[in-house]
Amino acid sequence: MTLETPIEFVKGIGSERAKLIKNVFGISTVEDFLNFYPIRYLDKSKIFTVATLQETTIDVQLKGKITSIQEIQTGKTKRLSAKFNDHTGTMDLVWFQYSKWLKEQIPINREVYIFGKINAFNHQFSMPHPEIEAEESKESETRLKPIYPSSEKLTKRNLGQKFFQNILKHICKEIPTLVQENLPDYMIRHYQFLSRQHTFLNIHFPKDPQHFEKADYRLKFEESFFFQLGFGLKKNHHKTKSPGNPFPIVGDHFTGFYENNLPFDLTGAQKRVLKEIRMDMKKSIQMNRLLQGDVGSGKTMVALLTMLIAMDNGFQSCLMAPTEILAQQHYAGIKDLLKDTEIKVSLLTGSVKASARKIIHEELENGELSILIGTHAVLEDKVKFKNLGLAIIDEQHRFGVAQRAKLWAKNRIPPHILVMTATPIPRTLAMSFYSDLDVSVIDEMPVGRKPIITAHRREKDRAYVYNFCHEEIRKGRQIYFVYPLIEESETLDYKNLMEGLESVMDNFSNYNVTMLHGKMKPDEKDAAMNHFASGKSQIMVATTVIEVGVNVPNASVMVIESSERFGLSQLHQLRGRVGRGAEQSYCILMTSDKLSKDSRTRIKTMVETNDGFKISEVDMQLRGPGDILGTQQSGVVDFKKLDLVTDAHIIKLTKNLVEKLLESDPLLQKPENLIIKNYYLQNYKGKNKWSKIS
Ligand code: ADP
Ligand code: MG
Predict the structure, then answer these.
(1) Contact 179, 154 (CB under 8 A)
(2) Domain 252-282+297-421: CATH superfamily, name plus number
(3) Ligand 1: which residues within 6 Å by Cβ?
(4) Where does the pLDDT of residue 693 fall: very low under 50, low under 70, confident under 90, or very high at 90 and above?
(5) Which pTM was predicted?
């Protein structure tokens, strides 16, 4: 048996079963089986009793009799319920999904052992999907018993826990010849790791909880270490192999603007990141940098100043935004900042007319145009620059591979890249997903900014909320009312918005109300935005189209309707639309009376803090890293063992370790590091999903 042996040749499997297992779990080789980790373990040496059960997260074992079974129909769904009695008390066993086969297999009125997690509700315990073993067939067990992921399709064919346990027992016997070490001695000693062979033995059949912990830790460490190593090697490669246009000069465009047109002093953090960027662009290596900063921390000014440096060095720049509205806002803002200069800026979006577009194309090619602001339209092949030196991406989600390639191809030597996040992302995510980028963080807000006051209100408080809004309008302020987008039903969205609009118009009949939603044509949206921004209307009723970037400093109240329907980063983004002026601003989170636990956590977090970095951490705990990155990207952080929420310390440790390692041995040529290199080359190079990024 080798790692590559197809599973059909493993004793007890055969081609028929091999196909099934491959279909369901994607396991096709012995190696896949070794990496098919248990989802939990049973301690079969302890027997609990119903009377003394406590709320716990571990699996428990009980001994008793199943006295009756019954199918229960509620609405369209059926479940199977059984009574279990162990002389100390009675508990329900429940199956939410089950086959006829399973139903017939349940032994009635015989001594059995049942295993599983318990659910507690109103001090009543129940056990969903228990494992049942008849007393006579129970083996005496001292070790922790692995429980593997299961599937009904396989269980029906008798490929249940017993089967997987037996196969893995068999494979684990071969571990001494199958599994080779992949970390150097000095690391194993330093971190007191189990050997790699003992790691696999103890992950499948732990000797005791301590051995399991050690095995589990090593697997997480390995996963994170080789992942970081991949990024580290790639970054090194990039630094030595990707030429960039050096920008050594800070000249008249930059200094002229800085001294005469800068409307405020930069914050310390803005100055620091600007310096980091300048240092990077001085070199003849392409810059690949992520600029992280909270909503309102002033990323745009950093972007503009960076573009001025590009100009000073004779290069053009482009700034891309994810939506038309945001691109327009950037354009308006930057044009205004540059109004006393000669610098030429244009806007290119999908809705720019052909005639205007033609002029932009020409001016880009003859170099008259220094700064282009736009949406994805900028990427089109027709858009050619005379000398593009810098591309800034103000984004929600990271650009796809194809889009990046297009950007790179816009000059013979690819432009420097600066990616700006729309909201902060958690540290562990930045450390893994964005590992190939250098990171700059703006961790300071402009002075004099008053923290937004956030309150949670319910339907019964509506009159009070409207009253408060009236007062603010009387003071000369403007108000946003935002309604959620329910993706499954656009018609419902619209209805929501229309009802909202009606209610607002009824209650604010003496004021002008503007509406903004995604179905409107670009020029209608534009007109609506301008109407509100210029103060012609006091209230804007909108869907989340206003989420990103919209800047109306006089707006001081953000009312978010049905706010329990929004995700945390969305709420934070929305809230960031107010608090942009000198006045005290408010965010009012309207919810219904009944809230789920997660909704409560979200609302509470919003009320308690304005710190986007803190909010992003909570968001990741609630949703998991995949959802935060968006579906297209989530596969990249699809670790088997590593958890970006709970294993932050491991990620940090391995990142530092890899940095030090590659500093002292960039190509892993030292004899003691060859073991790492060989394993990496065999298992990761060319196979890694993340090699496709950037
Ligand atoms: P974001 O980082 O969310 O993109 P913006 O760049 O839109 O933030 O900046 C938010 C607001 O803060 C803008 O109105 C901008 O003019 C202002 N601003 C930026 N930097 C400073 C500063 N150093 N001092 C005062 N106001 C600033
Ligand atoms: Mg911005």
Answers:
(1) no
(2) P-loop containing nucleotide triphosphate hydrolases (3.40.50.300)
(3) 264-267, 270, 293, 295-301, 446, 551, 580
(4) very low
(5) 0.72
